[in-house]
Amino acid sequence: MREYGSCGCVQREKASETHTKHGYHLKDAPRRAKWLWAQYRLAWEDYLARIEEQQGKCAICPRGIGADDPRTHVDHDHESGNVRGILCHYCNLALGYMEDDAERMRRAAEYIERTRSVPD
């Protein structure tokens, strides 16, 4: 048996019709839509359109993202509140750790390039 988070549903051998492949409960879609609106003033349809515009990929890297994946994040400017794009979990964390500081990110990229090992 496989248990899913807060919904308390239990799945046996095959995927339940009420869950996506990521274990995200479909009943949570309206809840997520309400949260997106309250948090970012982003309508569910606009959220889906952004993901489609990004061809189902993170706005920074080629990782796939999905509206039903709890690891998909809305990136926004913390000063203006404007939504910048939809990111994967890792890119969202990276921006957060870099405190949205573009100069710091450029220096980090330069550091990686400068210290990259070249195979023998």
Describe the 3D structure:
This protein is α+β, with helices and mostly antiparallel strands and 120 residues long. The protein has a single domain, classed as His-Me finger endonucleases (His-Me finger endonuclease fold, 3-Layer(aba) Sandwich), CATH 3.40.1800. Helix content is 38%, strand content 11%. It has 4 helices and 4 strands; from the N terminus they run ββααββαα. The chain has helices at 28-40, 44-53, 89-97, 102-115; strands at residues 2-3, 10-11, 73-76, 83-87. It has a two-stranded antiparallel sheet. The chain has a two-stranded antiparallel ribbon with strand order 3-4. A hairpin with a 6-residue loop joins strand 3 and strand 4. The longest helix is centred in the C-terminal third of the chain and has 14 residues, at 102-115. The protein is elongated and about 55 Å long. The N and C termini lie far apart (49 Å). Residues 1-24 have low confidence and may be disordered.
Secondary structure topology:
Blueprint: E1 2-3, E2 10-11, H1 28-40, H2 44-53, E3 73-76, E4 83-87, H3 89-97, H4 102-115
Antiparallel strand pairs: 1-2, 3-4
Summarize the structure.
By secondary structure, this protein is of the alpha+beta class.
Count of individual domains = 1
Average pLDDT for all residues: 82
Question: Sheet with the most strands?
Answer: 2 strands, antiparallel
Under CATH, the topology is which? His-Me finger endonuclease fold
The neighbouring-strand order within the major sheet is 1-2
CATH architecture, by name, is: 3-Layer(aba) Sandwich
Low-confidence region ranges: 1-24
Proportion of beta-strand residues? 5-15%
How many E-type strands?
4
Described by the principal axes of the CA atoms, the overall outline is: elongated
- Oligomerization state of this entry? single chain
**N-to-C order of helices and strands:** EEHHEEHH
Helix-residue proportion: 25-40%
CATH superfamily: His-Me finger endonucleases
DSSP summary: helix tally = 4
- Main CATH class: Alpha Beta
- Summing up helix and strand content along with how strands pair, one would put the structural category as alpha+beta
Distance between the termini: 49 Å
Backbone CA Rg = 18 Å
